[in-house]
Amino acid sequence: MQISRYLDPELIKLELETSFEPEDEETEELTQKRKFERKEALLGEFARLLDSSGKICNPSKLLTDLVNRERKATTAIGKGIAIPHIRSMQARELVIGVCRSHDGFDFDSPDDKPVHLFVPMAAPPYDDNLYLRVFRALAELFHYDGFLDRVLEAEIPYDIIRVFQDFE
Prior knowledge:
Blueprint: E1 12-13, H1 32-51, H2 59-72, E2 76-78, E3 81-82, E4 85-87, E5 95-96, E6 98-105, E7 115-118, E8 121-123, H3 128-141, H4 147-153, H5 157-167
Parallel strand pairs: 1-6, 3-7, 4-8
Antiparallel strand pairs: 2-3, 5-8, 6-7
Helix pairs in contact: 1-2, 4-5
């Protein structure tokens, strides 16, 4: 499956804008509530990014859908990767973004490592077949040696699209 045909340079962020103040030194771990508030802030940035595609009806409702999806189970898959995904009435058609973070964020990854690469994705609820094929193809790409490194090293959005094309 050619995921690159669904990628748009305008939906690729080489560095996320969301940032957080350092926590008090006395607090070794963030409370679960504070962790989820941080996660919601990131999901908000993803909703705004996907909305910029023109394929989202209501970004605030999309954010609610993403948050509710994330409450059910984390979309982090390990190795510094998360695929926040949702089937939502707010998506007119499949839309995919790519976001990076040099420092990484705690996103409840199964390996407890920070997430550096996010691939937010939204699709209409009636388009299960395409949604599942794209999700499966994305997950498979991350198993290829060198794929993640090349995405993280890309200097411009078009480089990221080229990496996807090279591995498809």
